[in-house]
Each structure stands twice: as C-alpha cells, then as structure tokens.
Amino acid sequence: MSAPRVTPVEGDGHTAPHPAEPPSTAERPRGYGGLLRYVRHARRRRWLYALTVLALLAGMTVAMVTTAVEQTPTIDEPVYVATAEVYLKERSFRHNPEHPPLGKLVIASGLVFTDVHLDRGFTGSQQALGRHVLYESGNDPGRLMLLARLPVIVLTLLFGLVVLAFARDLTGPAGGLVALALYAFSPDVVANGSLATLDVPAAGFLLTCVWLLWRARRRPHPHLLLAGVALGAAAATKMSVLPLVPVLMLLGVLSLWQARRTPGLDVRARTRLLLHGAAAALGMALVAVAVVWAAYLVVDPRLRWAGAENVPDIRGMRGRAAAWLPFPEAYRDGMRIQFGFEYDVWQGFLFGRLYEGSLWYYLPAALLVKTPLGTLALWGAGAVAVLTVRRLRPALPYVLVPPAVLLAVSMNGARDLGVRYAVFMPMFLAVAAAGVTLLRRRAVHRATVALVCFVAVSSLRTYPYYLPYSNEAFGGPSSTHLRLHDSNVDWGQDLGRLADHLHRHRPGERVWLVYKGAGVPAYYGIDASDPLKAPLGEVHGLLVVSDSAAAKADGRLAALLATSTPVDEVGHSITVYRRR
Prior knowledge:
alpha+beta, 4-stranded mixed sheet, two-stranded antiparallel ribbon, 22 helices
C-alpha cells in the first residue's frame, strides 16, 4: 500500500497528509464491480458519520431539555426573562442595562409563543420584576422558563456544529467527532446551555467568529464579513468579550496575509498586503459595531435611554473606554455598571476556604474540579499536538491564543462565582483536542477512544444534575459543595426538587429553610420558616440549607449547622439537616 498523498497546507508552506484524501490510484478498486463496492462503502461511511453526529447531538438535546424541565429558575434567569418580556411589550432598556440585549432577544424568541402577563406599571428592581413576572402575575413559571430556555438550547446545539466544522477543518472527520463528543458530554456546556442565561451564547458566537477567521485563510472577504457579524453578536450578548477584539482583529490581518501571500513578495508588496489586511480587520470591527447597534435598534428604533440610577462614575482608562467606544449610550452605561461591579468586594469559596475579594487562580482551580478527567487529558494532549504537529501550528493563534487571553482577563476579575465565566474553554479546547487524531500512533488513537468513553460515562453518571458536577478525583457531584459554591453547585435550581422530596419523604414535618435562589418556596408548596429570625432554642425539626449559604455560613447560621445533623441531600445543592 502506498503512503498517503501529501498536499500543501494553504498559507504556511508546509505539507501534511490530507485528512479527507481519497485513496491513491494504486489503492482504488479496479473494474466496475470493485468501483461499485467502493462507492457503496464510502456511502455507508458517510451515513455512519452523519448518524454518529446526530446521536451525539440527540443525546445532548435530551440532557439539556430534561435539565430545563426539571430545574426551577436560577438566580439570574428571572431577570433575563422579565427583561426580555419588557423588550417585547415596552421596547425599553430600563431593566438590566449591564448586559446588551441580543442574548435576551434570543430568550424573547421563545416567549413569543405564550401570552405573558406583564404589569406595565411595575416600578421595583429588576430582581423584583423577575419574581413578579414569574410568581405574582398569574403566569406559569415552569412553562415560561422552558420556553425561555429552549432557544438557548437550540443555539447551544448549533454551536456544537461549529465545533464539529472547526475541528474537521483542522484535522479531518475523526477529529471532528472527538471534538463534538467532548463538547456534547461537557457537563459545564450542558448545564449552562440549558439555562436562559448569556454565558453560552456569548462564548459560542466568539467561537464562531474565530472559526470564520480560520476559514478566511482561503476566502478572506466573505468570511471576514461573517466573522464581523459573529463578533458583533458576541459583543451584543456580553461585554466581557470586548478585551478579545484586538486579538481577533490581528487574526483577521493574519488570515488575509495567508490568503494573499505569494512567494517572492518585495517589501512594498508586503506593506500593501499588510495595509490591506489592516483595512479588512477594521472593516470586520465596523461590522461588529453595526451588529451591536442593530441589536439595540431591534428593541427600540428610537434608542430612548434616560440613564439608569445605578450607573457609577468610572474614571481612568476604564472610564475613557466607556466614553469613547462607538456604541449606544445604553451600552456604554452598561459598561460603567460592569466596571462598578469590579470595584465591589465579593466573597469567594474555594476548597473549603471562604475569603473576601478574588483569587487569580480561582478559575483554573474550578475548571480542574468541574471538568471530566478524560477531557482534561485530551485538552492537554490536543494543546501539545497544536504546538508540535507541523500541520497544526498555523492553527495555534486561532485555537489556543483567544481562550488563553480571555481566561487571563477573566482571572483578573473581581467575581469568583463560577466556571460559567470561562465556559468558552470547553468549546475552544474541544477543537484543540481534535489534534490528537493527527498523531500517527495506534496507541494514541486507542487512548483517545478510551478517554472519550470515560468522559461520556462521567457525564452520563451525573445526569440530570449537571450544574453541581465535579469529576471523580474530587468526589463527584455530591462533593462539589465542599470545594466550590454559587453557580458551580447551587444556583437556586433545586427548589422544585426540594418540594417533591419533602412531600414524599418528610410529610408533615416542621421545616426551617435557608434558601439561596430566585424561586418562591411557597409557590412550590413548601411551608417553611426562617431559622435566622427565630431564637435558636425554637429551631427544631428539619433545617434545610442551600449549600452556597452553608459555604458562607457565619454567626447564627454557623451555630445552627454546628448543632444539626445532615440526613438528606437534594440535587447535590441543598442539604437537609435534623435539629433536635
């Protein structure tokens, strides 16, 4: 059998085996019968590949829809859902200005299928508005949340196709399946992709932008235009992507340079090519700005904005950035609010330690806990492959640099509240992990298959409790609350499950509840008292405490927990104690 034919990789001058190359002439079947068998075999392989992709996405769909149906609203969701309804009914930016509107418009696309009652005269805070819309206006919160979550689920599945396509472009069909499997079985992606929140949409649009920039190495102009649209969609969803804009513009220059470079260019020709690339990157950025403006115009064509009461006065470089960027005033005020959050002092919890402020290593440590062990191994192997395999080196600035830069920026943030702030990592590094399929050793391929299966088993074992997932090295989902808090484990998602648990297993018992979340216990039939407002001697019976509240317990709650015995847990996020 002849060696695989070698083709040049466009733009880098190197050669490498083409992943989708047809057999050489010597390998092709001879005669009509042999050719017919070859065509049938190729067709079966294509069908098998398509069925594998569909199976992975179908499994992910089941996991996310089940999670969306069973979980009650998390802390942030009611605000986004209520704001989305305000967009539809009032065309107003007055609520939740700290986040741009596109992600909430995605959520609103599900709400158009139901008649949500909205009190136009409501004047409370955005948190109070969320509670009012879900629980105090005659709406069905379960149905409302499902309809709000479904568009994000669909978007998460579409981003899975981007992961597949990006990895195929880099490594071929096998690498595409490895990347898609890691994405589909990622507990963090499933958990956050099944919520009506903004983290997965922003990260997915960012990944799409980088993939289009990679494709621009072949056809620069249409792909740079589309990359600008994707970048604008990311910036119109979350402002946290803005630090990556200069990096993406440099990638735009690099892509056009690789597409247009020819051997023997003199200095003047190279200078013109660089200027052309800079102009194209600037055009991409302008398209992104236009998309941001379009998102605001969809909500209110007149762009009415009277300002928010909680907009802080931000000075220095951050203040100048908020003043100078060419975005709507509502967007720039939202930036000021976000910068104000960075000046606040937040509480964090890591490996059993409660602390004030933030730790620079919090996100890497949290990712280490909440990422399947097989995924961590494949991320590392894929990163090594990108660095060492000659064919993959041109992809390094596209696959590894953007997540590294964004992670470094996120590590300097003030809020240690969850790996959702780094949910882009499972997306980008799934693509990088596909690089292991180009290592021409059978042992590596067997190990890759084994690790993907290990990831699948680890993910399926946590079903349907994806939010509190931690890997086997850290004790699994039931132990996550010992090491992390907030959206890593307990975001208020299990109030409905708690109601079912008390009804089935603890009927008629006195319940004392410390709940951290946005749900209303009484709506779910939980008749509970607040133990923090009663004398310690009167608190007897079941003491039910959200694990995030227990992680930060001090004073009165700490004294209650110290004299109580854990007897049950609900959803790995709420612990039931007995206090006699």
